[in-house]
Structure formats: C-alpha cells, structure tokens
Write a structure and sequence with these properties.
- It contains 3 helices and 7 strands; from the N terminus they run βαβββαβαββ.
- It has a 7-stranded mixed β-sheet with strand order 1-2-3-4-5-7-6, sandwiched between helices.
- The chain is α+β, with helices and mostly antiparallel strands.
Amino acid sequence: MARLCLTPIRLRAARAFVGAHHRHARPPQGGLFAVGVTAGGELAGVAIAGRPVARPLDDGRTVEVTRVCTTGQRNACSMLYGAICRAAAALGYERIVTYTRAAEPGSSLRASGFARVAAVEPREWSCPARPRGAAAVPGPKFRWERRLVARDTPPTTPQLTAPPDTQEADCDN
C-alpha cells in the first residue's frame, strides 16, 4: 500500500477529480478551498469546502465540506476530513458541517471527530418562477458537525508570582 500524503490542490482540479470519480454526486458549483491526498505520487482523493448550502447555517463562522471523493485508498477519507478541519480552523472558522446519505455509515466522519446531529428530509425546491432539476442525491440525509478550535490561539498567560524570597508568609490572624 502506497503512503498517503496531503497536497494542496486548486478548486478547478478538485472539481474535475470529483466529476471523474464520485460515485453519485456532481462536482459542487464553487468552493472556498480544497485539499488533496496522493498515494504513490498519484492523486487519490480530494475534499472541497464551501459556504453552507443551508442558509441558517451560513453565519460566516461555519464552513461545509461539500464533497469528499477518493479512489478507494484506505484511510484517505479520514485524512482528508482531518486536513480540511485543520485548514478551516486556521482560517478562523468555528464549526464545520457535512452531509451523508442515510444509508452511509459515516465511519470516516466519526474517526475525524464529527458527530451526527440531525436527520434531514429531502425538500422540493422547484417552483414555476424558478424550476429546478431533480436533486443530485435524492433521499434522506444526515447532517454531521464538528466544532473547531484554532491551533494558533495563544496559550493562557501563566500566573506570575514573586520570587520565593520576597513572597509574603501565610498568616492566621
């Protein structure tokens, strides 16, 4: 088995990879940033982060993993989820969400620190004024969430004390 390595990737290349390899979803329309993983020097997977699709979640502090796609390399999904979470935290995001179909177990998400927080029923968004095609991934889904902690936040300042010879003695007056 080839060693997995993270690699930067442009959104256009990540979207093309999803278009060529994803088993049931089209590439997302856009995105904020992406990360790739290679195995033996070949691109083996990508993760794409974007603004949350659900308007109530689009608060400026939440990012959504809109696609994760691999060629089946073991541990590639978990590596991508971990990397995209670290990147989002470094950019100042506080929460990251993503969705799976109800039939998918979410093992890589659990391994990456996500928790399943909601069941999401499909909605019909088409209307006469703005008709839309069929959903890309029909059926019920689960929303997963992970709180992010920025790694570059300064540690708390230790309590400064006077040198031992100048400290006051405890008194029982």
